[in-house]
């Protein structure tokens, strides 16, 4: 047990890595909707999808650099819960069958980041005392 406690030192760093990679991946959902990059979005856009794309790009960027991480992650968690229940759950209960796995995972990942904080490698960490950074 004591062997694994040494890994606790890595926790704030790995939290930052998780936030950075998740935010970068999440941003691409928005860039597809708004800019057609890295590929065109496959459905016609309506005001709700434009709004989602805007939140994905701006919120994803804020999370990527770790700026306003907790409130941004909380808002994006809600966005993904909304996306899951609006777009995926009508197609069945199981996320693997209704294609809602990504939305569900992003929802809970962002909810975790809103509670745990952005980790050490963030703009927020530069602005707050170390005792408050998760």
UniProtKB/TrEMBL annotation:
InterPro entries named in the record: DoxX, DoxX-like_oxidoreductase
Listed transmembrane segments: 7-28, 48-68, 75-97, 103-123
Annotated protein name in UniProt: DoxX family protein
Family: Belongs to the DoxX family.
Subcellular location: Cell membrane
Domain of life: Bacteria
Keywords: Cell membrane, Membrane, Transmembrane, Transmembrane helix
Topology versus the membrane: Multi-pass membrane protein
